[in-house]
Structure formats: structure tokens, C-alpha cells
Amino acid sequence: MNTATPSPVKMLLPRATCTSQRICCVSGFQVDACRSSSLSKNLVVAAKDSIGWCGTSSVYSKQPLNRFLLPTGALVTSKSQDIPVPPLVGDEKIGVLLLNLGGPETLEDVQPFLFNLFADPDIIRLPRLFRFLQKPLAQFISVVRAPKSKEGYASIGGGSPLRQITDAQAEELRKSLWGKQVPAKVYVGMRYWHPFTEEAIEQIKRDGITKLVVLPLYPQFSISTSGSSLRLLESIFREDEYLVNMQHTVIPSWYQREGYIKAMSNLIEQELKKFDNPEKVVIFFSAHGVPLAYVEEAGDPYKAEMEECVDLIMEELEKRRITNAYSLAYQSRVGPVEWLKPYTDETIIELGKKGVKNLLAVPISFVSEHIETLEEIDVEYKELALKSGIENWGRVPALGCEPTFISDLADAVIESLPYVGAMAVSNLEARQSLVPLGSVEELLAVYDSKRRELPPPVTVWEWGWTRSAETWNGRAAMLAVLVLLVLEVTTGEGFLHQWGILPLFH
């Protein structure tokens, strides 16, 4: 695989014109679909072109943008005056399930949280031959990483604030929906810590919800985040007769929505004003990374959606006469495999070498404060920036309960319900009414449905301290760990048994 960094030249491809029509079933209704270069208010469904801008550069100047590069899935809008409003009381019980990663609330939670994380095959994908080692390997990694992780969580108060923030978002979303005449209940389901998705589903059943909108709190779709949660939901739905018969809709990504773009732009504009010379500040978008093979081999749309999202925000800022240079990089990589580039730490160093003195960090893939923003960005990357010659550092806060953001999430939920647009607030046509929809099964059929084996990230063997060599050295170390684990499991003896780790899986 060629891993060379492309030239930092942004390329925009023209939108495809409509060449065919198809029928797409959304929430039990059939709607006409086509791929179009324009978005009129009568457009019902559009499919995604997998295009965006190219380059993994450090700094870009703002260029004209194709405004609507749509995400995979159905984008739904409609004329509310043509559709009768169904009753929202009585037998109809609407629920919204917010999905998020979760985080340890105390230092004692760190190791079991890490185990849940690494036991997920969408986070660490082992070859079929070694899949029986998923949990032993997760236990080993979580025990090894826990001390370092505890230091990080201790530095931000002894635990992640993610649950408290997500609970607050759920409450504000509920209030917004009721204010828009949609009396829905909102639930929180975390993937790797309490309240687990399974716990939220049980409460949904107890409350007798008949229509469920599944809303991952990840603006951009990734196999390792929204995709992992959808697979879990699929397994839960298949095993429960109540859930099989419950109508549901999933909003897999919403990074392109007008309310989200404006909310992010508002926060960036506010933080820029805190600098002495706002026009000289480089806007530095830092997104959570994913392994490169997820994108290049498994079809993960995350990179394309992230790049388009940044362009949409910069276009909105340009309307406000903010034309700062900007950059996009990826943080939080783990392990020896190659992740999406450019890396945040390397880009910060590069910007310092180029003479950048003012940097505003934007945690673009995070809607809540947690370890990646409070410790990794605010502490580690800030320190690195100051050492690299950057004199003035700022950071845009995560969206949290920002009113424009919450209101737009409520609109997204409303638009995703059957009879799209009929239950929305007035002045529908003044809003961007675009929501990608689909059932859990339909979306998994689009995103990485075959769960293909991930290829090696590097195909050249090297020794020494080059990046390729480090990757192979790490791979050799991992192979040695796997061999030791196989011996432990097959013989029932070894240091992991002596430490009391593996007997958990007898």
C-alpha cells in the first residue's frame, strides 16, 4: 500500500447529474429517489457521491465549495402542507435513543471500561484464526494500559464527564422536542460503560415506546463508533420480539445539517475574538482518528464526511467574512497500525516550523468534553504547541448543550419520523431539512456489511527506527503476545493465570 502523503492541494469534483431514479423505503413509506445536482424543496432522496477534497496538508486557504455533498443514506425532505399531521398522543409513544461511547466515571472504572472497549471487534479486529483470543487480549491490553489511562483521568478530576454531559443533552433535547409539540422520551445508551445500550433498551421496552429514533452523538459516521453501536442494536433487535415489531429509524450522521454547522461556526467565531489578531489565527480542526485500512479497505465514510464537514464550516465562516487559514488532522491513534493522516501531533510541530504563532484548536468530531479534549488537547497538544514555537493557543469548547445545536438535533428527530416534515415546527422551508434515514439492517448493509478482513497497513519490511519498521516491530510484538496467549489458553498455565487474569474466561 502506498502510504506517501498526497500533495496538499484541495480538489473539488463536480456534482453528478441525475441519471436514474430508484425507490427507497424509509420508515415504512416509499419515496422517489435520484441523484441530483440541486436541492429543491421537493427533493426526497439523494445518494452520496464519495467525493470530498484531497490532501493531508498542514494549512489550506479557503476555496469555493460545492455546498451539498450528501452522506450515504437517504436524505429526506418534504412539503408539510401536503401531508396530514398524525396524532402524537394516545397509542403513539415516541422515543429517541442517544448513542455515545461512554467513559469511566471513577478511577476504579478505568480498567473495566478499557476491557469493554478493546473487547469490541470493531475496535480491534483480529484475524478469524485468532478471534477466540478477543477477550483475553482485551483483558491483557486493558490491564497494561490502565495505569497510564488512570493518570489521564486523574488529571481531569478522576473520571470522564461524558455521562453527565450526555444526560444534560438528553434532557435539553427532550425539552426542545416538547417545545416543538413532539412529546418524546429521550434515552441514553453508552457502548462501553453505564448506562449501557442494553439498559436503555430495557427502559424503552418498559415505557412501551412504539416509534424509536436512533441518534448516535457522532456527527460523522465511522465503523468504529456509530457502526459498532448499530451492530450491537442489530443483535439486540433480532433476539427480541417486541423490538422486531417496533418501528425505528436511524440517523447515522448529521454533520451536514445547517444547525450543527452554524453552532460550530458560532463557537469558532467567539474564540477567535479572544486573540489579539484574529485574522492571523490558524483554525486547527482535530478529529478522532481511525485506522487507515478502515477507510481504504473496509469502506468507512468517516474521512470523506469529516473533510466535507470542515469545508461546510469554513464556508459558513466565509459568509461571516472570516477567511482564516485552516488545517485538519487526526488524533488519538493507538497501536502499530497506520491511522488516518496527518497526525495531530506531527501537524502541530510542522505548523510551528512554518512560523505559525496563533493556533485555535477545534475538536471537530466531539460534541462533549471528555479525556480527548480535556487532557489530550488541552494539556498534551497545548504543551507540544508551545514547545514548537506557537505562542498563542486557544481551544473551541465542545458543543455540549449549545442551544442552536440542540434545537437542530430536535429538528433532525422530527424530520426522521414517519410523515417527514409534517410534525416539524413552522417555517419548514426556511430550514435545511436534510436527514439521512434507514433502519439498522439497511444501514449495516451499506456500511461495511461484509466485515472484510483488514489488510496489513504496510507492505514493506524494514528494520531500524523508520515508521515502517516501527509498524512491523509492533506487529511482531503483537504476534508474540498472541502466541503467549494461545499457550496460556491451551495449557492453562502461565503468568497471566498466576496473576488471575485469564481464569475469568474459563
UniProtKB/TrEMBL annotation:
InterPro entries: Ferrochelatase (IPR001015), Ferrochelatase_AS (IPR019772), Ferrochelatase_C (IPR033644), Ferrochelatase_N (IPR033659). Its main location: plastid. The lineage of its organism: Eukaryota, Viridiplantae, Streptophyta, Embryophyta, Tracheophyta. This is Ferrochelatase. Pfam families: Ferrochelatase. GO terms for molecular function: ferrochelatase activity. It is an enzyme of class 4 (lyase). Belongs to the ferrochelatase family. Coiled coil: none annotated. Its EC number is 4.98.1.1. GO terms for biological process: heme biosynthetic process. It catalyses: heme b + 2 H(+) = protoporphyrin IX + Fe(2+). GO terms for cellular component: chloroplast; mitochondrion. Pathway: Porphyrin-containing compound metabolism; protoheme biosynthesis; protoheme from protoporphyrin-IX: step 1/1. It comes from the Eukaryota. It comes from Turnera subulata. Catalyzes the ferrous insertion into protoporphyrin IX. It is found in: Plastid, Chloroplast.
